[in-house]
Amino acid sequence: MNDRPLSLFLPDESATLALGRKFAPLITPGMTLWLRGELGAGKTALARALLRALGYAGTVKSPTYALVEVYVISSLYLYHFDFYRLNVPEEFEERGLGEYFEKEAIRLVEWPEKAAGHVPSADLEFTLRFADQAREARIRAWSERGHQCLTAFTACESAAGN
Ligand SMILES: Nc1ncnc2c1ncn2[C@@H]1O[C@H](COP(=O)(O)OP(=O)(O)O)[C@@H](O)[C@H]1O
Ligand SMILES: [Mg+2]
């Protein structure tokens, strides 16, 4: 996909949460979302907003230590990964994490670069950057499905006058 990445300014946490809420209805099972950015950039906050909007009412923990948290929302499976603590990318295979990518689930992946060469590619890539106290998001589509999501999101935003 050669879409230009979409850049958004997120002035505060509520803007990050709104971004997650807006993408939730556009994401379909089988999709992989990479969430990139430094520690504290808002990757987990974005994941939490997506989960909430998909109907998960419980606690959303950061999977930093467990590497993966599994959510079942009605019949939808969602896997939330955080590879920050992978020592080497090969650990992805050693821990059998590839199995999670074979199923028709939604996958949110923090720190995909720590499993470089092993973690499957993204349909959508969100990169969050610090902008003083605020954040900037860059969203990029890497597949046809990702492209459709991004197009739908852009259409909703312009209809809303954003
Ligand atoms: N757009 C934003 N502007 C300012 N602060 C934000 C924004 N989005 C999220 N935050 C804050 O940044 C922190 C992000 O933490 P977290 O989501 O755990 O980061 P990460 O998972 O990327 O390490 C939280 O304290 C959250 O309140
Ligand atoms: Mg996190």
Explain what this protein looks like in three dimensions.
Helices cover 26% and strands 27% of the residues. It is built from four helices and seven strands. A hairpin with a 2-residue loop joins strand 6 (124-131) and strand 7 (134-141). The protein has 162 residues and is of the alpha/beta class. It has one domain (6-155): Rossmann fold. Bound molecules: adenosine-5'-diphosphate and magnesium ion (MG). Magnesium ion is lined by residues 43-44, 62, 82, 110.
Per-chain topology:
Layout: E1 6-10, H1 13-23, E2 32-36, H2 43-53, E3 68-73, E4 76-82, H3 91-94, E5 106-110, E6 124-131, E7 134-141, H4 144-159
Parallel strand pairs: 2-5, 2-6, 4-5
Antiparallel strand pairs: 1-7, 3-4, 6-7
The structure holds adenosine-5'-diphosphate and magnesium ion.
Magnesium ion binds next to helix 2.
Low-confidence stretches: none
Q: So what's the CATH class? A: Alpha Beta
The CATH architecture name reads 3-Layer(aba) Sandwich
Count up the helices: 4
Number of domains: 1
By helix and strand content, what is the structural category? Answer: alpha/beta
Distance between the termini: 24 Å
Mean residue pLDDT: 95
- The helical percent reads 25-40%
